[in-house]
Each structure stands twice: as structure tokens, then as C-alpha cells.
Structure prediction request, 223 residues.
Amino acid sequence: EAQVTQNPRYLITVTGKKLTVTCSQNMNHEYMSWYRQDPGLGLRQIYYSMNVEVTDKGDVPEGYKVSRKEKRNFPLILESPSPNQTSLYFCASSFSQGKNIQYFGAGTRLSVL
Amino acid sequence: LAKTTQPISMDSYEGQEVNITCSHNNIATNDYITWYQQFPSQGPRFIIQGYKTKVTNEVASLFIPADRKSSTLSLPRVSLSDTAVYYCLVGDRGTGKLIFGQGTTLQVKP
Prediction:
């Protein structure tokens, strides 16, 4: 089954404790992206990757890191989480950026205390 | 950066046609315009995509004028299960980044 898998689905952590949210897709997509969703602000892009070893900042990259060592995986790293990173996070993938039918994961709800 | 504008909310009744318009300027010349549906606690789900004129699939139609400065999602004969948030997605002309609209919350009433 074609899917984008995020883990964990829920995470509660404390300020400053490094964490990684994993994202994996099985559709051989080149384009992958991370978004955060906050009430009243909609979906905002954090980072995206056009292909392996190619990543770029989205609209709200501060406080986040990503890597794309393999085509299928695109982990989101919070080196030192802060309470303002409490949010709902979505990973997405698509064949390319231009014809942008993106497939979304189920989401990761993160709370930073 | 491309800017998108959607109505924040809309109300409708079962069986009616609903049209949601997204205004978008400065969008990438070669990118498609895409619409998504999102239910609470779920990821957005693809509804329809187009480049120009009109596109229709089994669930919706999408109207895009020649200047591509707006797009209108049309949902025929909505039902209670169409209550959701609807987003447009465009590419920014300058950076190529993908920009979501703020979302339109559609409430369908019986």
C-alpha cells in the first residue's frame, strides 16, 4: 500500500531534549517536505527536499534540521526543542514539486514542556 | 512570496453546491494548483489539481481563469461528510516553494 509513515504519532518532551521525527515513503517519490500546522496559521512548510542530499528551507525553518540520505527517508530533527515548537507536524511526498500532488502522513502531535 | 487568500469559513446545507475560491498572486508559471481536504487529526488529502480552465473528477470541479490569479473549487451536492477544512496549494514564482492557503472550514448542515 502506498503510504507516508511518520513516527511517533504523539510525543511529549521537555525543553532542550533533542528529538527526531521519522518520515518514510514507499512510492519512490523525489520530493519530500515537512509542515507544521498551528491553529489560525494553517500549514507552513518547514523544510523540503527535491532529491537525495538536496534540502532547502521552507517558510519556518528556525529550530529544525533535516537530512535526506536516502530517497525514502526524510527525518525532522529538533536539536533543542522549545515550547513554541509545540505543534502538529506533517510529512509529505510527491513525484516532483511542480505537479504537486502530495501524499501526507498521519501527523505527529508534539508537545514541548 | 506568493500570497493566497481563502474565506475562513463557509456554511452550506446538504444537497447544495459549494464553491470555494482561492486568490493567489505571484505563483509559479509551470506549477499546478492543487486543492486538499482535511478532517480533524488527519493529514490533508488530495481532491483535485489543475493548470488552466476546468478540471473535473468524481468528487469535484476546479475552475482556473486564464490569468491563474485565482481558482475555484466546486463541490456538487455536498453531504454532511464533506464538513472539513479545504486548502489550496500553489508554488511561489520566485522561490519555487509550496504555499498553502489558510484553509476554509466548510460546515455542512442537515
